[in-house]
Amino acid sequence: MEKIKNTINLEDFRVKDVKKGTISKVFTGRDRGKKVREDSKIDKIEAENDTVEIIIPDNIYSINPSFFEELFVNVVRKLGKERFLAKFNFTSVGDYVYEKPLNEAIDRILRSKTALD
Question: From CA 101, how far away is CA 66, in angstroms rounded?
């Protein structure tokens, strides 16, 4: 059985409007994060690989912590912060600085109570 590819390129999950020829420059919201988590099969990718590469595409204006929170909820709970950051490698193709929203999302996931509890 072939091993599943260990790369998730967020470019593949941008919202595109073919009629207008536009493409989303933000990743925001829990619902979007959940959809990308499910569609990317991130939980399976994490389970079957020693490392996981997350590629943040060029021309991104914002990635909200709530998006990251829902995208990474299962793998962060499974691995904890240190092991998650050691296993998941992030590459920002453009100049988007993702560390602050990512760390905020990780901290939210690991809190015992969330705003939704």
Answer: 8
Q: For residues 20 and 9, what is the distance between their CA atoms, to the nearest angstrom?
A: 23
Q: Quick one: tokens of 111?
A: 């809190």
Q: Kindly give, in sequence order, each residue whose CB lies less than 8 Å from that of residue 49, ignoring residues fewer than 6 positions away.
A: 3, 4, 6
User: Rounded to an integer, what distance in angstroms lies between the CA atom of residue 95 and that of residue 56?
Assistant: 10
Pick from 13, 103, 109, 105: nearest CA to 56: 13
* pTM score, whole prediction: 0.88
Of 77, 59, 63, nearest in space to 32 by CA: 63
Tell me the per-residue pLDDT of 23-65, one tens digit each, with 9 for 90 and over.
889 999 999 999 999 999 999 999 999 999 999 999 999 999 9
What are the residues facing 89 on neighbouring strands? 53
CA distance 12 to 81: 26
Over residues 75-92, the pLDDT tens digits come to 999 999 999 999 999 999
